[in-house]
Amino acid sequence: MADNEGAGEQILEICYKAGVKVVTIYAFSIENFKRSKYEVDALMDIAKIKLSQLSQHGDLLDRYGAKIRILGHRSLVNQEVLEAMDRAMELTKSNDK
């Protein structure tokens, strides 16, 4: 694994090599919206950064045929995160795993 890959990318690669077909990441609970605005904004920023990193390293997702699907209440997520979510899903929509 390359030194510049994040922990999430490393986990995905390990899962693929181990034959895992589906990985579910529970990233943001509805309970998190009860936090302060500062904390919610920080969590949204982290989500945006991680989704952007996945999109930038799309070669890993393409190499393994990984498709990103995001479920949840889109109306609760800010526009920047929605755009990062949509970009990640669009980049991987043709992948078959």
Automatic annotation (TrEMBL):
This is Alkyl transferase. GO terms for biological process: polyprenol biosynthetic process. GO terms for molecular function: ditrans,polycis-polyprenyl diphosphate synthase [(2E,6E)-farnesyl diphosphate specific] activity. Pfam families: Prenyltransf (PF01255). It comes from the Eukaryota. Keywords: Transferase. One of its GO terms (cellular component) is lipid droplet. Belongs to the UPP synthase family. Gene3D superfamilies: Decaprenyl diphosphate synthase-like. InterPro entries: UPP_synth-like, UPP_synth-like_sf.
